[in-house]
Amino acid sequence: MSRNKYAEIGKQLQDARQKKGWTVEDVHLKTQISKRYIMALEAGAEDDLPGEYYVQSIISQYAALVGMDPKRFNKDKEPKSVAEWREEHRPVANRIERDEVRQRPSVLMGLIRQVPWLMAMALVLVIWLLVWGLTSGMSGNAQIKADPKTVVVDHTAKKNVKSVNGKTVKPVDTSDQTDVSENGGNVDDLQVKLGSKVKTASLKVNTTDANSWIMLIDTKKIDAPVWQGSVPAKSSKSFDLEKGHSYTLQVGNVKVTELTINNKSVPNNPKDNQIRNIKLQVK
């Protein structure tokens, strides 16, 4: 995309923003796009913008916010991996294609037809499991067992120590654990609570069968992102989140991206969006 093309698109977005009476700060707060990128795009300053893949996502978000059709700007610049994914997952268009899908033989049926004795062995195994289950249940019923849910609490101890079937159960130590929860039921506004022994939270980005891209911003250092760039397919990228800091995480190609924090899965957003903005508060 040429410098003049950025200038033309930036001017259209700027005009649309001004018609709504919004400032650059308003667009930044609504989209979490860096203010310097918004100003660079409106000015057509290509040297101050990130890679073309990320610029396309900025244009799409900005256009959608001001009520313009994002496809008029970046449909032809769609990443190849995303275009291939859409082609593979597009709905069946006509009756001929639907019939072809229905007529494809399954792997299981192919094995049964080629190896008849395989089904016979499977049937014998099922019968054996049923007989074993019945006999185990009968022998188990003959024994009298104490209720494993019986809990005895010793109120004389300094701490609330519990005993189950005569065995002492120590209180759960959460000092080395991490809890990821939603603020107000919003899956894109998360609170990360670290135990007293945990100093940092490890954010891990995993991709499946296509490329993705991310931008991680520490709100205390908003002038420059912690990291931004593309994450190749079937790979991962990790970052340390500091306790007491808040972050903004922008994820592209959401459907092929999986996020974890200290091995805890980040909740998925049920909305079918290609781009996701997540707020992270580390405490």
Automatic annotation (TrEMBL):
Domain Cytoskeleton protein RodZ-like C-terminal: 209-278
Pfam families the UniProt entry points to: HTH_25 (PF13413), RodZ_C (PF13464)
Keyword Transmembrane: yes
Residues passing through the membrane, by range: 115-135
Record's keyword terms, sorted: Membrane, Transmembrane, Transmembrane helix
Alphabetized GO MF terms: DNA binding
Coiled-coil residue spans: none
Protein name listed in UniProt: Cytoskeleton protein RodZ-like C-terminal domain-containing protein
Species whose genome carries this gene: Pediococcus argentinicus
Lineage start: Bacteria, Bacillati, Bacillota, Bacilli, Lactobacillales
